[in-house]
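Sequence in, structure out.
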Amino acid sequence: MKIQPADKRELLKAAMGKIPCDLAVTNVRYVNVFTGEVYPATVFVHQGFVVHVEDQDPAKELSLAKQVIDGENHFLIPGFIDAHIHIESSMMTPRNFARAVIPRGTTTVVTDPHEITNVFGEEAVHYMHDAGLDLPMRQFIDIPSCVPAVPGLENAGAVIDAAAVDRLAKLPNVIGLAEVMDFIGVVEGDDRMVDIIEAAEKNGLYIQGHMPGVENRRMFSAYLIGGPICCHETRDTWEAVAKLRTGIHVDARESSITKNIADIMAGVRDHTFHDHLCFCTDDRESDDILYVGHMDEVVRQAVKNGMDGINAVKCATLNTAREIHMDNLGAVAPGYTADMLLVDNLSDFNVKSVFYMGQLVAKDGKLVADIQDKPAEIESRYSMNVPNLTLEDFRLKAPEGCGDKVKVNVLTYYSEELAITRAVTEEIPVKNGFVDISSDPGLCYAMIINRYGTGGRAFDLVRNFGLMKGADGSTVSHDCHNLCIVFKDAESGYAVYKALVECGGGMACADGNEITGLLRLQVGGLMSTLRPEQMAEQSDAMKKALNALGLPQKNPLLRIATMALPVIPEAKFSDLGLVDVMAKKLIPIFPQ
């Protein structure tokens, strides 16, 4: 697949020096991602494409350029490409997201809009696609493959099937099928997943993968044969090595909550080839983007963990372009799009200038291109169709006749940071007919409330979540985005429920009847229309409010987000109950 120029004949003339080109960027240390060399060069650009790189006499023929920019001896590298991201996780709309990441050097992202698609269905894919057009960056779309994530184990707001994939594949900026999370369905040849993958392949789309924590090497082989070619759910050293040896593209992730670069680099930094290693952010929030970085930070972390700077650039550019089957993206070379960065060095990657399709779009950390607002009706549509609950509904009733103790299958976190959880059977006190956790600081109540009109909800216990008092609630709950509330007492849980229903979704926390933090996300309960700086300020305030309730993480916002994601081992909640992820079945909250 190629990004086509408006007039190839004009590019040919400019390449041969027969007509003046639009731009020449001179006096740069040119990073060649094909050979790994760095040398002085001048890059000539015409109609958004590189037409020539002059390395023998860098100052030669500058008179043939309508505009000449002095690169001031900075390194010239391709624009960064994010191999996998959910723009919704930034909690910004696509256009506000662009305002935040472009000055950081990101010129292309591959976005999976399955978060908002779980809320609004196919219409949401059209919204995310159209909102990402006419920007000074490229927002490619991968069609969500698993909506809902695991049919029969949860209820979301929509269903995407093979017919929907076939329809959505016709959108101009659609290039792939997004993370196929039902990896068990793929390796077992499940009809639904095979049909969806075949619909994507018929339309020439590449297939993105999602295979966390699997040790069975035969499953790696079967998954690759099934269609997915890459995986961003690679958390451990052994896992990175095993997947790369199989031929799977590893999209090394550095998100706001899950940071895998260090562990992956420990296993692969000494490999001779890194052609199948790419970088992604997956879920990165507004304040992290603005104050820490986006893809520039991922590349920095790779270098800090032992990767050569030139190789890190290649992983963040050309390798990703090849993974997503884009033939003229990811390099600064003749016929390639003129997406280029000037950076001060190849370790810190401080971005001085950003060019998109040959146009200067950001300089010294500031956006200089104009991005117009593009309001859409979906951005103000109310999406909280939840059951009408009372305070009494937030007290967990014990089974009749259980006595003063009851066995409970408790969802248990492995650590403060990991999203992996298991179900552990415990004996919990019963007081006045209700499950009582008041004497156990490590336990919380957890409720998953369907917000799409089914009326369904599940009520259980969770251990090691981190909350010491009050309640934490969110409609950002991958991937179903049902309303999830973790709470120490009924009053706090009920207060959060009421606040999120009233505001139309988002994140809230409470201490008793007092709401101590509220982040309103009116776009499907996932995003805000606020500008990046405003969003970052509110996000930071919400983090501090959650820390005050005992959550120890530096970034506690997404602690709750993966609790109801039944494709992450070993057990998870859904609005239907407690899920055994690997066995793909519901297990009782109160075992016999």
